[in-house]
Amino acid sequence: MSRDDENFPTEAERHKLTLEALADVRAVRVVDHETVRAWACNLGSLTVDQPPLEDETYTPGATRVTQFRFEARVIYWRGPSPFFFVPIPLQHSEEIRQISKFVTYGWGMIPVEAVIGGVAFSTSLFPKDGTYLLPLKVNVRRKISVTADDLVSVEMTVHSARR
């Protein structure tokens, strides 16, 4: 998928497509893997082995489920294990919650790949207080020079867990 906004689905389009896909899964209206693979390979700019974003760190074997773009402020969690996070906006959290049982690998953890400030990284969202938190590892924070309360732009791809 192109990084240009005109090629990126709107939130409403993405939400509608997610609901339609979930209804298809519930009704067992699914397409076999080889048909999807052949279709994806014919797209030209996107193949099964190629990531949708130029800088994305693609995890082979994972299936891209949906993508988001948003801005949010970095928060600092002063719990027993202090850490920095980007809270996922509520409208995206709702969409993630709707697909969570299809993509989680346990304990509500959602595998994602994110790009912030041109730095791509893989991690897992986890649920917290009705939303999800995107962890910012130390090496990522250092590369993009962010700390608590900094506003960041995030491109995030939700993947299904490898099973």
Question: Any idea what the CATH superfamily is called?
Answer: AF2212/PG0164-like
CATH hierarchy: architecture: Beta Barrel
Question: What structural category do the secondary elements indicate?
Answer: alpha+beta
| Total strand segments | 7
Write the topology of this structure.
Layout lengths: L10 H16 L6 H9 L22 E10 L1 E3 L5 E5 L2 H14 L6 E7 L2 E10 L2 E6 L1 H7 L6 E9 L4
Can you describe this structure?
- It contains four helices and seven strands.
- It is an alpha+beta fold and 163 residues long.
- Strand 5 and strand 6 form a beta hairpin.
- Helix 1 packs parallel to helix 3.
- The longest helix has 16 residues.
- The two termini are 25 Å apart.
- About 11% of the residues have low confidence.
Supply the key terms.
Elongation Factor Tu (Ef-tu), domain 3; alpha+beta; 4 helices; 163 residues; 7 strands
Short description:
With 163 residues, this protein is α+β, with helices and mostly antiparallel strands. It has helices spanning 11-26, 33-41, 90-103, 138-144, and strands spanning 64-73, 75-77, 83-87, 110-116, 119-128, 131-136, 151-159. Helix 1 runs parallel beside helix 3.
